[in-house]
Amino acid sequence: MPIEPLLPTTERALLQRLASEQAAKRVPSLVAAVVRDGRIAWSGGRGRVAGEVPGVDTQYRIGSITKTFVAVLVMRLRDEGKVALNAPYGKYVPGTAFGDVTVAQLLAHAAGLTAESPGQWWERTPGVEWTELSERVTEAELKHRPGRQFHYTNLGYGALGELVARLRGVSWLDALNAEILQPLGMTRTTPMPEKPHADGFAVHPWADVLLPEPAHDAVAMAPAGQLWSTLNDLSRWARFLGGDTDAVLHPDTVAEMREPAVVEDAEQWTSGHGLGLQLARNRGRKLAGHTGSMPGFLATVWTHAESGTAGIAMANTTTGADIPGLCTDLIDIVGTLEPQLPAEWAPLTEVDPELLALTGTWYWGPAGRSLRLLRDGWISLTPIAGGGRASRFRPVGRETWIGLDGYYAGETLRVVRRPDGSLSHLDLATFIFTREPYDPSAEIPGGVDPDGWQGR
């Protein structure tokens, strides 16, 4: 099916938003893109890099977007059985002052660890090796009880990079290249800049003049913000974060990373963090990705997995530009002016008769649920009337499914048959679902009154 280009009016609105950000915020150069249907649907650049308008192959430093790559490396180790998220960090990297915090807490910035590494401002000074860095970290760098609250920690991602290096036996950068960048074809994502690239600047607050910013190798702190990248490469990364993983990671694992682990503003819940991914709720959309800032650079990738749309932007200025807001606006402009058409409905090409026989009404006690057969043997269980617990289930064996969302996420649903092979009931996390309300012939916990349903 051919991909339709965006309308000229939509492209004009996107360019207007980009141009307004660059002009009003006095940004030396700024690039942005919208990803849709698995490709860059629109891109634009303003300002100059080496005298040219920057484009989709111009490198910018992406700062903390680096953390998303480190998180994926950790989740690959988890899926291979080499790391347990609830295990203490000290199990894998012994000898630190924070060995009792868990890997999951570090991923979600819930370990209570200090925001920055001890010593000089790490973002503007040459880095040190992990041995020296870890010796600087004392119990004083534990600012909160682990698990108590969200507290962003760059130091925690330096620690996770060391975990990857210990378990892989190579540097985290070598692991990144072999396990993520090469398989995804991200050839322009590098630890140091490669031409064409933007130089980082600070813009004077009261005059239109620039100050060059340094760009050192952060060494042990590099996993917190070392990488440089391009719109082309980050468009592939945005698709990955939305679920197009190309076997680098299972899509279910990426979906797990997008689930809220902690929230930054508990009262309103407009922003939070999953396992290595920042989360935001904007105009009814749940976005996942990450922001990034280093001296001289700002960057953001936001992905709306439900629609397969992403906004990406990068700028070479230290402060001032609202790059996260620019990205959410780009997604909103496209979603508002050109809402995606729903996928065309088509009947199933084949169906298992035994699965088809499971569809219809089931009762948990007196409460009715509808069971629908979905594609690939998936099923959904939904309340017939009023509120209640609804979930989708993915098959994991013969007549066995695992819950994917809602109350029953991670729970097992199985078909229970009578000795003669006839269908008795469904068992879902000890809840019994029957074809009739409180079917006396099924294994209802506590039994069913022998007098049955009665009038009063």
From TrEMBL:
<dbReference type="InterPro" id="IPR050491">
    <property type="entry name" value="AmpC-like"/>
</dbReference>
<feature type="domain" description="Beta-lactamase-related">
    <location>
        <begin position="17"/>
        <end position="322"/>
    </location>
</feature>
<dbReference type="InterPro" id="IPR056008">
    <property type="entry name" value="DUF7586"/>
</dbReference>
<dbReference type="Pfam" id="PF00144">
    <property type="entry name" value="Beta-lactamase"/>
</dbReference>
<feature type="domain" description="DUF7586">
    <location>
        <begin position="351"/>
        <end position="435"/>
    </location>
</feature>
<dbReference type="InterPro" id="IPR012338">
    <property type="entry name" value="Beta-lactam/transpept-like"/>
</dbReference>
<dbReference type="Pfam" id="PF24491">
    <property type="entry name" value="DUF7586"/>
</dbReference>
<dbReference type="InterPro" id="IPR001466">
    <property type="entry name" value="Beta-lactam-related"/>
</dbReference>
<protein>
    <submittedName>
        <fullName>CubicO group peptidase (Beta-lactamase class C family)</fullName>
    </submittedName>
</protein>
